[in-house]
Structures are given as C-alpha cells and as structure tokens.
Amino acid sequence: MKYIEDVRDRFSGTSFPVFTIEDARLALKGKNVGNGYLSLMLHNMSRSGEITRITRGVYTFHKDVVVAGFAFRPFYYGMESALALRGLSDQGTNLVVMTARNVRTGTRSFEGRNYRIQRIGKDLMFGYGVIKRGGYWIPVSEPEKTIIDMVSLGQHVSEPVRKALKKIVDRKKLVSYLKSYGNPVAAKTMEVLDMKRL
C-alpha cells in the first residue's frame, strides 16, 4: 500500500499528465520494489479504475481525454481538433494526435471518448504552440500548419473552416512552412485558401 501512495503522490498532479512503468520505477528507486511487483501493482490500479492505461506501458491518473496525446510524445494536436481547441471552430470533433512515433494509426478510445492517431515525419514536427486546457499545457498546431496538415493528409476542408482560416493565416509563415513540403501540397494549400501561388 505504501508504494501505491508514493506513485499516487508523484503522478496524480497536472505536472505529470502520463507516466510510464519506468517513471514509476524511478519514483520508487531505493525502495527495493521488484519489477514483477511493480507491474502487478499498476495492473491492479488500472483494473480498479484508479489509473487508466493509454497504451502499452503508459498510464494516467487523469480522466480528461486531452492527456492521451502525452503517451505519444513528440506530438501535437492537429487538424480539425486544433481548430476547435483554438476556438476557431465550434464543431465537435475528436482529438487528432499528430505524432512522429512509429505507432499504429487510427481511432482509439480513452475514458469513453475517441481520439485519432496520425503519424507524420519527424521533419514535419513544427508549427505548433502550447495552450492551456483543463489545467494542462498542450501542444496545438498553428492555423498555418493546421491547413497544411489537412491538405497534405487528404482531409476535407469544409467551407466554414476554409473561410475562418483564410482570415487568420499569416501568409509569410504559411509560405515558410510550405518549404518543407512538395509543390503539389503547396499549390493545393494556396488553392484551398484562395491565395496567389508562391
């Protein structure tokens, strides 16, 4: 029981949205906790509902779906979910976790809410900032990177979204970001935003 209290004290605050079994091992360093016991303890805490397993070896005490992305670092929230998080869209949408990790893509579930994993290249992990949501500082793509990601990954850009983005996109920043992509993506992005070619 003492070890559970140590893990709870260390990882239940907002400074640790998620933790791994290795993090728990380090938190209990010097307490002679065996690997088998630690795994069993985390399994039992997960089964009782005190912690939630996000993916293999990654757990959280928190119930907000916004912590799920931290299990796939480096990451940022992108595409249509970035627009909603930044207040640019009032359309309800599942969070989209953009990650450079080699993980299975697709829809997953956390505490009854769906979120989607989308893999991108490490060289494309840029164009995001952090915003505060529910006590957590989370990385969210900027409007310029959001539209580029949507176009490059074949995501439909609805008319209301296109109009909202057109009003706030910084052309200079957009052109700078597009240099990391090929000409077809650049041309299509400019076309979607009704902007003159580069």
What do you see in this structure?
By secondary structure, the protein is of the alpha+beta class. The chain folds into two domains: 2-60, Orthogonal Bundle (Arc Repressor Mutant, subunit A), CATH 1.10.10.10; 65-192, no CATH class. Helix content is 38%, strand content 21%. It has eight helices and nine strands. It has a four-stranded mixed β-sheet with strand order 4-5-7-6. A three-stranded antiparallel β-sheet has the order 1-3-2. Strands 8-9 form a two-stranded antiparallel ribbon. α4 runs antiparallel to α5 (143-152) and α5 (143-152) crosses α8 (183-192). It is elongated. 29% of the residues are buried. The mean pLDDT is 92.
Strand order across the largest sheet: 4-5-7-6
Instruction: Give the proportion of residues in helices.
Output: 25-40%
Distance between the termini: 63 Å
Shape annotation: elongated
Write down how many β-strands occur, each being a DSSP E stretch of 2 or more residues.
9
- What is the CA-atom radius of gyration, in angstroms? 20 Å
Largest sheet: 4 strands, mixed
In the predicted model, the low-confidence regions spanning at least 5 consecutive residues are none
Structural class: alpha+beta
Mean pLDDT: 92
Element-by-element helix/strand order: HEHHEEEHEEEEEHHHH
The number of distinct structural domains comes to 2
Taken as a percent bin, the fraction of beta residues is 15-25%
Given the structure, what is the number of helices? 8
Pfam family, one: AbiEi_4
Protein name: Transcriptional regulator
Organism: mine drainage metagenome
Domain AbiEi antitoxin N-terminal: 17-61
